[in-house]
Amino acid sequence: MGATDWLNPIKGFGVTFHTMFKKVETVNYPEEQKPTAPRFHGRHQLNRWPDGLEKCVGCELCAWACPADAIFVEGADNTDEERFSPGERYGRTYQINYLRCILCGLCIEACPTRALTMTNEYELADTSRESLIYTKEMLLSPLGPGMEIPPHPMRLGETEEDYYRLGRNNG
């Protein structure tokens, strides 16, 4: 035993007494919410084109990129009578399981059409497990002015390329 070993317990109490009398910062979280950082990774959102068609083409790349296996996508083919996206396919079933999601953002990087982005919403707690599995309807962005509920024909051009050029120029 060294000459200063008997001081170790006293040093430990010194740290305790030092922090015991500091003023505690109170966080009024539910009443006062602090703004998040601009690049904060929160809840996901499926985006739409300006005419209301969905940007998701059902490619399933986001599901493949997810390290937590939290995303389930099932693609289907568009028809002339029922068109949900400007491409050949659309995401018929889209689910994100927030019980598994680690909010890493790899799904966002994998998306070729920027259909999937992350919002600043971070309150994802709930009382049941089923309510933390978000469906396509829960993830789709709301319709804005001038948008029409799909299915409907393409309004921003005749081809899929017109939509991608529009998306690249506007965002």
SSE topology:
Elements: H1 8-20, E1 44-46, H2 61-65, E2 71-77, E3 89-97, H3 106-110, E4 116-118, E5 133-134, H4 136-139, H5 160-170
Antiparallel strand pairs: 1-4, 2-3, 3-5
Note down, in words, how this protein is organized.
This protein is an alpha+beta fold. It has helices at 8-20, 61-65, 106-110, 136-139, 160-170; strands at 44-46, 71-77, 89-97, 116-118, 133-134. The strands form two sheets. It has a three-stranded antiparallel beta sheet. Strands 1-4 form a two-stranded antiparallel ribbon. The longest helix has 13 residues, at 8-20. The radius of gyration is 24 Å and the shape is elongated. The model has no long low-confidence stretch (mean pLDDT 88).
* Structural class by sheet pairing and helices: alpha+beta
Give the amount of beta strand, in percent.
Answer: 5-15%
**Strand tally:** 5
Rg from Cα? 24 Å
Number of helices: 5
Question: On the 0-100 scale, what is the average pLDDT?
Answer: 88
Q: Quick one: biggest sheet?
A: 3 strands, antiparallel
Tell me the distance between the termini: 68 Å
Strand order of the largest sheet: 2-3-5
Helix content: 10-25%
Oligomer: single chain
* Uncertain runs: none
Quickly list its features.
three-stranded antiparallel sheet, 171 residues, 5 helices, single chain, two-stranded antiparallel sheet, alpha+beta
Brief digest:
The protein is of the alpha+beta class and about 170 residues long.
